[in-house]
């Protein structure tokens, strides 16, 4: 998660996951928002890796750049990636979300361009939750009945 040429943002967003989920989500986001997704970093934990290596690497950057806000979007609450990222909350400038989805990432990029204020946190979470729905055949039949 090193600063890229031209990356002046004070917020560093990292999607962190087991396997390739983080890379795939970033790719999907880039199809919608284009270059805005370029500032998203990814961390993919593979079976041969230790999440502690990631923690040590990122912790060095957090210590060197206390002026930045670090936002981690983790795949599974309580998983090894989330556990390690949560430990980084010991730093005041770190925020960790779990159960990340496309709605959350898009909302974060488009609605909170600079930092996540306290009042925005619940809105971000609520919007992410609202994006998760279940539709069945019964719902489709009900909708057709309502149309007539």
Automatic annotation (TrEMBL):
Task: Note the SUPFAM superfamilies from the entry.
Answer: PTS system fructose IIA component-like
PANTHER family (alphabetical) = PTS PERMEASE-RELATED-RELATED (PTHR33799), PTS SYSTEM MANNOSE-SPECIFIC EIIAB COMPONENT-RELATED (PTHR33799:SF1)
Keyword entries, A-Z: Transferase
Q: Which organism is it from?
A: [Clostridium] innocuum 2959
GO annotation, cellular component aspect? membrane
Is Transferase given among the entry's keywords?
A: yes
Q: What is this protein called?
A: PTS EIIA type-4 domain-containing protein
Xref: InterPro entries: Bacterial_PTS_sugar_comp, PTS_EIIA_man-typ, PTS_EIIA_man-typ_sf
Q: Where is the PTS EIIA type-4 domain?
A: 10-132
Question: Transmembrane segments in this chain: where?
Answer: none
Q: GO MF annotations for this entry?
A: transferase activity
Q: Name one GO biological process term.
A: phosphoenolpyruvate-dependent sugar phosphotransferase system
